[in-house]
Amino acid sequence: MYTAGYIIRTIPERNEPLTDGQSVTLVVSTGVPVELVKVPTLIGSDVDDAIATIKAAGLGDGMIKYVDSDLPRARSHSSPSTQARRSRPER
Fold first, then answer.
1. 17 vs 38: CA distance, rounded Å
2. Among 11, 13, 42, 85, whose Cα sits 20 to 30 Å from the Cα of 27?
3. Alpha helices in 1-91 (DSSP H)
């Protein structure tokens, strides 16, 4: 899955030798519909509530990582980003 406007392939392929004056064709992605959404505030949330909030925002499942903390174990403590991409699944 590529965002519109990004080069996804070249003709000839990379590392192929060319002679002076030969052309390179760029294949540009028309993309898939991508919408930027704000990552909801999860700090201090119960893990189950945080997962439900993430899904309600239309974001996909991620990874849960437990780390040593002075917060109760079932509480989230970090929000690594303020924006995430939401897109339709590939078919």
1. 45
2. 85
3. 47-56
